[in-house]
Structure formats: structure tokens, C-alpha cells
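Something for you to look into today, if you have time. I want to see for myself how the chain folds. Leave the record below and I will have a look.
***
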Amino acid sequence: VVQKGGGVIHEHLANSNATVKVNKTNENWRRYVDYVNQIVVEGLCEVTLVSARYFKNQVDETYLNNNDINPLLEIQLKLAPPHAVFTPMMGKTAKEDGLRDIVDSWLNSFINIATLVTRLDTLEEDGDYLLDMQEDIAVKHIVSVINKKIDLSERKCEEFRQQFMAYSYLWVDDITQKFAEWKEANANQDPDVLDKDPPLSAFDAEIVKYKSLEEEIRDLPTVKTIGWVKVDAKPIKSALSTWVTKWTYQFQQYLLEKVTTKVSDLVKFVAATDVELDTEVSDTDRSTMLAVMGYLRDVRVREAETDAMFDPLRQTVSLLSKHQVATPEEILRQLEEAPLAWSNLKKKAIVTKEKQAKNQSREADKLKKEAKEFEIRVEAFYATFRKEMPFEYLEDFHIAYDKIDQVHHGPNEIKLVDTENYTGGGDMGSLKGVSDDLKQLNNLQELFDLYTSDHREIAQCSKDSVQLKRVWDVIAMVQTIYIEWRKTRWDEIDVEMLQEENKKLQKEVKGCDKLVKNWPCFKGLEDAVKNMQTSLPLVEELHHPAMRERHWNQLMRACGMTFKMDDKFTFGGMLDLELHRFEDDVLEIVDRAQKELTIEKQLQKLADTWRVQNLSFPPDPDNADLYLLAVDETVMEALEDNSLQLQNLQSSKYVQGNADFLDKVQNWQKKLGSVDVVLSTWREVQGKWQNLQSIFIGSADIRVQLPEDSKRFDGVDAEWKDLMKEAVNETNAVIACNFEGRLERIEIMLANLEKCEKSLADYLETKRVAYPRFYFVASADLLDILSKGSNPQLIVKHLPKCFDNITTLEFNKDKDNNPTKTAIGMYSGENE
């Protein structure tokens, strides 16, 4: 209907457009379409709200109660261990079949009616009004109200489910385990009572408790109406009743089986023993006599228990009857007849014992003698056991296992050691054989009602053999693992992994029984693992890349053993050195190796540094054919740092104790010392040569005034130029400064230049005496004035140094407009 109505609306709208003949994009037409579109939205919303309101009433508990309306849905509450669950389940599920999934599908069907009508206000034919419906405030509100009512119903259903979950222990707990725990907790603590089961009153109380619980479950509601949901609880009530019955059955069946078993066993025992006690025994028939004595012993052993069991069994039958549990008629008959039969058997046993009194006395005397002889043998066996068993630590666990096997169960050729009471030298036998002999002896002693020998030495041997075997199992494991470790090549050793594995072995050792802690074999095991734990860190230290052949030689001397460190060397070879005994020596050797490695790296770094420290020789600005010395700041910084470093290295004990290191350090000290002296002298010579060159070469007046020094300077100048031509061929600072004879050559030039400077200073002093104003002028400036005296224009710049506030001179000019040597004006700093 809705879909058909939508089509009619579209048809009417199309007819209207055709009638008014207006373009569909016209603004007025668009407003009209929006108006009609809103009417459609409101209509669709109203249709949805009508359905939603009806559904809201169907889930409203108050509305349903007031109008006596049946619930909308019926669900079941079932037992699905370990939970009680609803079918269908509450909420949402992965399969979308939960109760909330059903409700959501209904609500969505109400809202999805908007998809049946194509939109009027779009050009696409697949548009609908679903989004308008979902965004409508009234629709949102009623959906929210419905969801709240559904939430309330779900909470009440959960509360109802929890009533049954209170009994979850019935199906969650293990009946057999809980019954065993109950028996232990309620066991009879009376030491005089042989039957340690809980008293019958405790059984009665438990059975009554579960009977009451069954009634309680029966009274739980079978059907529960919660608003719009009807809950059927019959499935879970039925399951709970079954579980309660199982718990009740556990207690009842235990009592019934107890009565049946005890009565049946007693009847069988009485019947069999009664026949055997009639056996005739001759004085020479020892085996028959022992068999009869065995039956007499059996009667004696179970007498106290049997005498005390009849009343409790009758009370148990009465209790079972009280709870409608029937005891089989045959068991009841046997229980009725059993006391008399048991009494007659006891009387018969007394008569039989009196008949065998003579034979019993003879055998008892013989048995006492055998017991004394066995006691002496046990004393010798114990001493031999302590001597022969591997209580000492052995390097081969196979030998220990062989000894344990031989002593424990044989065969062996071991002779008993002599003791204070034994000197026979007989065969030791085995622990198993001696234990069997003791059991046989004790059995005979019980038959004749004699004192039963305990011989604690045998028990101690059995206990020690078990513990000793366990210790040797650990030793075998440790030795086997260590043997495999020893095969590992030196370069393949993973110390970290071995340490972790060894810690596990330490835990195994600590887990041994405290009884063995003082045994030498355990001490050896403990020491082996402890020594390995000590050695492993030392092995890791010895793997340091700083180790050199000299260090391995030091290790050999410290440990007193020799080995060859090559690609075949193994972990076992290192363990043979017993590193744990030389821990301090090893650590000292490794520390020395590391320190020496640091020194090696320092020396290598120093060599690398000076391999790239070069001198530069830029051209002389005044003479392109001549080169000058230029020393980069990095060279001087490296020289200063490395000289201090070498000084510190030389004082190191690791250098003083190593001839190779000491030779290298001293050699570098010598080289860098030469660099320092040569560069400082070389630069000083260059500075003096540059200062004096213009004076002695460029000044004719100086050469006339100082002829000898001029000649001396000419020699230095020639030598300097030869030196600089050679120097450019080798720029490395160390090599250049350590050429043979270079330092002496430079020092000679320096001495001659200093002589030239001295003569020049004396010459300048004569000029200052002749013209005192020259005292105001520095020596270099004075030299410049004297050397350029024939060219006044070049010395004008020095006038302010001689005359106050005279800055320059004005010279007369010749016909070519060049300045002459005649001054015609003086000018101050203010150009006046």
C-alpha cells in the first residue's frame, strides 16, 4: 500500500508540473516540491510511529498487566554447563539470533518502510526517505523508550537466571573429588577407632541436606512471566534435580558398598579359614604347620577390627533404610549370621593354637637363633654397603652406576667386611636380597607371635641407595652436558647461553635432598658446577679481542700448563687449565690485555693522525719562484695534544712493562720533539729572513754601511732558497722535520740571521744618535726610512711618527708632472 501510494504521489506531482508548464529547476517549483516532500516525510514518520507505539505497549509490563495481555515471546532457561542460558539468548549474538537481535529486526522493519517510497526532491530514481526517518526526533525518542523497556526486561530475566546459578556448585564441582575432601575433613580422629570414616551422623546430615536441597529446587518457579517475555524453567529444574540426586547417591552408595564389601569379605574369610584350621599337622610337616600358623595370625590380626564392626554395620543398614535405600537380602542375612560364625572361628583358632603349642615352641626357638644370625649379617652388610657404594665423587658416572647396580640388586663378587661380631668373609649379596630375607623373617616372627625385628640399617641402606642414585643421576646429567660443552671450538663458545644452562644445573643441584649434602659425591658435584660458574665469566673475559699471543703465554705461565691457541682449540682445553683456581691471575691478564689494546689503539691513532698532518708551502708574494713555510693550526694542536699523550703513556706501567710499547712511545716522542723544534726554528728563520731581506737586498745604503753582514745575509739567503726548493718535495710534517741534518742546517741559518740583526741594531743606534727624533720610530720603520731614503714619497707615511701632527708633504713637480725631491708644503691631520 505504501509503495503504491508513493507511486500515486509521483504521478500527481508529474501531472501538476505538466499542467503549470514550469521548468523543474524553477525556484518556485522547487519550493512546491519541498512542501509536498515534507508531507510525505511526515506521513511516513506517522506510519512508523503507529507501529512503534503498538510495539512499545507490547513490551510495557504495566500495560500488559493492566490489560491482561499474554507475553509476546516465550523462551526457555536451560542448563549448559558451566552456565545456565536462555534459548534464545539475551542480548546480541554472533549469529544474530539473540533476543535483542530479534527486537532490532522488528524496529528496523518499522523504519525501513521509508525505503518503499522514492524521493520527490532528487533526480536519482534510487533515493528514499530512510535517512529522514532515522534522524526524526519522534522516531528516535520512541526507539529509545522501547530499548529502555527491553533493557529492564533483560535485567529482570538475568535476576531470575541468577536464582538457578546459586546452585552452580552442583554441576561445576567434581562429585568424587568433593566427596574425598569431605571424608578427609570429617575423618574420625579417635586413635582407638580403627574405622577412620566420618561418623554415620555426618553421612546422615549430608544426605538430609541434599534431600532438603531437592525440595528447595522443586519449589522454584517453573514458569516466570517477565513483562513481554515468558520464561520456561522446566528444563533447568529437571537438570538440577538430576544433579542433586547424583550427590545424594554418592553418599548413599558409599555406605551401601561399605556394608556389602565388609560383610562379604568377612563371610569368605570365615569360611576359608574354618576349613584350613581343620588341617592335621604332623611333627615333621613344617610347611603345613607354617600354613596353619599363618591362618591363626590372620585371625589374630583382624580380630579387633572385626569385633568392632558389627554394630556400625547394623547402624549403617538402619540409616540406609531410613533414606529408602534397600540393602540386599543376602547381605542382611549374612550380617545376621556373621557374629556367631566369627565367634566360633575365634574359638576354633584358640583350640588349634593349643594343639600346635609344642611345634610352635620348637620353631620359635629356631627362629630366634636365625634372627640373631641375621642381625650379625646385617651389621656386616651395612658396613660393606658404606664401603662399596660410590659415596665418593668419580669423574666417570658409569663406574658409579655399575657399583650401585651391583650392591642394590646384584650380582656381585663383593665379600662382607669383618666387624666386631662378624669375621666370616662371606658373600655380600645384594640389598634387594637382604630386604627380601628381612621380610621373610618378619613374616615368620608374626606367625609365631614373636618380636618383629626392624633392622633400621636395612631401611637406611634402602633410603641411601635411592638418594645416592638420584645424586648420581644429577652428576651423570652434569658430566654428560659438560662433555658436550668441552667439544665446542673456542671461537664458537656462547658464554651467555652456557651461563644460563649452568644456572639451571645449579638449581638441579640445590634441589637434592638435604640428606646428601654432606656426602663427598654431592660435594664433588657442587664443586664441579660452582667451578664451571666461576670459569665461564673468565672464559668470556678471555674472548676479548685484546688477547694477543703474549697474553696466552702469560696465562700458560700462571696456570702451569701449555696449549696452542689455534682454530682447533676447544672449550675443554681451556677448562683443563682449571681457571677457577687462578681467577685473580686471569682477570689481571685480561685487564692488562685490554689496557694494552687501548695503548695500541692510541699509538695507531697517533700514527694515523700524523700521516695526514702536512706542511704547506705557498708562493712568496714578492717572488713567485720562491715558497714560504705555512703551518696549519691543526698541526700545532695535534703536536701539543700528542706530546702530552706520549708523556702520559710513558709513565704507564703497561708501557714500562712492554719493551715494544716503550720503544714505540720513545720513538714517537723523539719524532714529535724534532717536529716541535724544527718547526719553531724554521718559522723563526723565515720571519727573520723576511724582515732582513728587503733591508740587505733592497737597500744599497745598508749594504754599503754593513758590507760583512750583507755578505753573510747573502749566504743565508742562498741557503734559504735552496732549503725551500727542497722542502716542497715532502710535505708530511713528521718526515719533513726529521730529515737528517735539516735541524742543524736551519739552526746555522738562524745564528747567522741573529748576527745580521745584531749588526743592524747597532747601525740603527748610530742613526738615532745622529737624529734623536728616530728614537720615536720603531726599528722596522726606521729601517724602512733608511732603505727608501732616496725616494721621499715612500717615507712620507712615517712623518707622523717623527713629527707631531705632520701628516704629509707637498712636493714640487717637474715638467712631466712627476713629484721631485723638493718639498714645498707641510700638511697637518686637519689638512691645514
About this structure: The chain has a mean pLDDT of 86. Strands lie at 73-80, 83-87, 223-226, 229-232, 619-620, 623-627, 808-813, 819-827. The longest strand covers residues 819-827.
